[in-house]
Design brief:
Layout lengths: L1 H30 L3 H15 L3 E6 L6 H9 L16 E5 L4 E5 L5 E4 L5 H4 L13 E6 L8 E5 L8 H10 L5 E6 L7 H11 L4 E6 L7 H19 L6 E3 L2 H7 L6 H47 L2 H64 L6 H54 L4 H4 L29 H9 L2 H68 L3 H27 L2
Parallel strand pairs: 1-6, 1-7, 2-5, 7-8, 8-9
Antiparallel strand pairs: 2-6, 3-4, 3-5
Helix pairs in contact: 1-2, 1-9, 1-15, 2-9, 3-8, 6-7, 9-14, 9-15, 10-11, 10-14, 11-14
């Protein structure tokens, strides 16, 4: 026990030191007029000092995320319902009594009764966050939360309320552990796969849960888990570990650790006790880098605004404004051209699919017949079941081979369609980079696309509703001679295999088209974001420089020295926070 206490004490001391230095970083941000950076630094300092780390519950809407978290704390704290309920991030923390608080700005918290929580976190009672809620925290006396773990309820991806999805995506940089909630209808959406990929690039711990398992048959649960494991392992390039089967409603109704609840809670407890300190340290490093980068860009912009003549800074702001307007006009003018290019790509993708079907369908049938004939001794039902499995495996294998074969060609065609857009965009941005200013050099040019900006979202359909294994066919097989039975099974299964290949190859083709459209949209958004960020920061720096220059050259020189000192201190704080563990 004494040895454990000795190991724990330096960690607590380190957290206090991190918090102190982050507070100093926040003070520097406040002095620089970066109130948003200062507020974020203060919040990061608070959670590091308290030893808190975030386990975010993420997934498609209506996966039962809120109910799952209620099951983990053992009581219905968070509102849940038939419609998509959660519209705000809600953080469950440890507390001596059950209570909740909300924040409307960077400073003020307001305590509310738990019964009123739904008035602030649900889309129905706070549509599109019309009440201006910035943060929601709920305190619960719970053994799991006492470790410093905070469970975060997030709005569902793919909700009809678009802002809800963005709230979840913006929180991704703050996540320390992801609790990914899967379902069986479908088991995994394209958005979920993409989000898991984003999370895996930042964090080491992903925990997967198949919720509402009580509503599924054994076959449905097995199929959903196998599909999720296949897609996610391919997406991440590694094994995803166990998928825990749970029912949140069973847990709350019975109070018992049914299904995989005990294993899930054990995994979370083990994570808190064995990796909690590492999670907090990782959060410190990620947060420090993010805050320091934002602050250094602001300070450098302010310094340059003081060095150059006001007229030049004003011209630069106007130039940024013109660039933004020109970029918007260019994107509108290029819109019809992009649409034509996308139609041409769709035509090319369709041709690829026709060639695939012309080549693969006969080959699949030729491979299917000897495989079925080798099983001719099987009785009707078993033979047809085996034939259906074989057809699915062939279709899945051929379609995925084709997807891997065509992927680089599709990305090359997409790259070519974006070349003209990027050339025009960089004509605007190069004028900014030509000044040689460091603050612009790193943000100016858009690189040429090397591939799609979104991952594949294709998954094959099993098409159970058309499989050739009805009771009538099984019955007829019992009375057919062996050769006729095999011939009938080959014919029926071949037709089923043809439909699988047609359907799933169409899904691959449509996935290529969707990725072209989404990648182009993200490219346009990146250009808009860069110009907006440059414009807003430059305009703010110009206004500060204009006010300061009215006090004379001595004041300007003093401010330049102060800014340089602040930049040096920011870098020093950043290095110090990285060096201390």
């Amino acid at each position: 026990m004494l040895a454990d206490a000795g190991r724990a004490a330096p960690r607590a001391n380190n957290r206090l030191e991190w918090g102190s230095e982050l507070q100093r970083l926040g003070e520097l941000a406040h002095q620089a007029g970066a109130a948003d950076v200062a507020a974020d630094a203060r919040l990061l300092a608070e959670r590091l000092v308290e030893g808190r780390f975030y386990v975010a519950c993420v997934g498609q809407f209506k996966r039962g995320k809120s109910t799952l978290l209620n099951g983990l704390v053992g009581e219905p704290i968070l509102p849940a319902g038939v419609l998509p309920v959660t519209s705000m991030l809600t953080i469950l923390r440890h507390g001596s009594e059950r209570r909740a608080r909300i924040r409307f700005d960077a400073e003020r918290w307001q305590w509310i009764p738990l019964s009123e929580l739904i008035d602030y976190v649900s889309e129905e009672r706070n549509p599109e966050n019309s009440k201006g809620v910035r943060a929601v925290e709920v305190f619960v006396p719970n053994r799991l939360l006492a470790s410093g773990m905070c469970l975060v309820d997030t709005p569902g991806l793919g909700s009809i309320f678009a802002g809800n999805t963005e709230i979840t995506r913006r929180f991704v940089p703050h996540v320390d552990v992801a609790l990914v909630v899967l379902g069986a209808d479908p088991p995994l959406s394209g958005e979920e796969s993409e989000l898991v990929g984003q999370l895996a690039a930042r964090i080491d711990h992903l925990i997967f849960v198949l919720n509402k398992s009580d509503r599924l048959s054994d076959a449905e649960r097995t199929q959903a888990k196998q599909f999720a494991e296949q897609v996610l392992s391919r997406r991440l390039g590694r094994s995803i570990g166990p998928i825990y089967e749970v029912s949140s409603l069973e847990r709350l109704a019975s109070g018992q650790l049914t299904r995989d609840w005990e294993q899930l809670e054990g995994r979370l407890e083990s994570l808190a006790h064995e990796a909690g300190a590492d999670l907090i340290q990782s959060a410190k490093q990620r947060g420090t880098d993010r805050l320091a980068d934002r602050l250094q860009r602001r300070l450098e912009e302010q310094r340059l605004a003081l060095i150059r003549p006001l007229e030049q800074s004003q011209q630069r702001v106007e130039e940024l404004r013109r660039c933004a307007a020109q970029a918007e006009r260019a994107m509108k003018e290029l819109g019809p051209l992009f649409a034509l290019e996308e139609q041409e790509l769709a035509r090319v993708f369709s041709g690829w699919r026709d060639q695939f079907l012309e080549r693969s369908a006969p080959l699949a049938r030729r491979q299917l017949r000897p495989a079925l004939e080798s099983k001719e001794h099987e009785l009707g039902r078993r033979l047809r079941r085996w034939a259906v499995r074989e057809a699915r495996e062939q279709s899945d294998r051929m379609t995925h081979d084709w997807l891997r074969e065509q992927q680089p060609h599709a990305e090359e065609l997409y790259r070519r369609t974006t070349e003209r857009f990027i050339e025009l965009a960089n004509e605007f941005l190069e004028r900014l980079a030509a000044s040689g200013e460091p603050v612009l050099a790193g943000m100016a040019a858009l690189g040429f696309e090397v591939g799609f900006r979104v991952p594949p979202r294709y998954y094959h359909l099993e098409m159970f509703h058309v499989e050739p294994s009805s009771a009538l066919r099984w019955l007829l097989d019992l009375f057919r001679p062996r050769t006729r039975r095999v011939k009938a099974v080959v014919a029926d299964t071949g037709a089923y295999l043809d439909r699988l290949l047609r359907t799933n190859s169409a899904r691959v083709m449509n996935d290529f088209i969707d990725r072209v459209v989404e990648s182009r949209r993200r490219l346009e958004f990146e250009l808009r974001s860069r110009l907006h960020d440059l414009y807003s920061v430059a305009e703010s720096a110009l206004e500060r420089a204009r006010i300061l220059r009215t006090s004379g050259s001595g004041a300007v020189e003093a401010e330049l020295q102060r800014l340089q000192g602040v930049l040096t201190r920011v870098e020093g704080l950043r290095s110090g926070l990285h060096d201390r563990s």
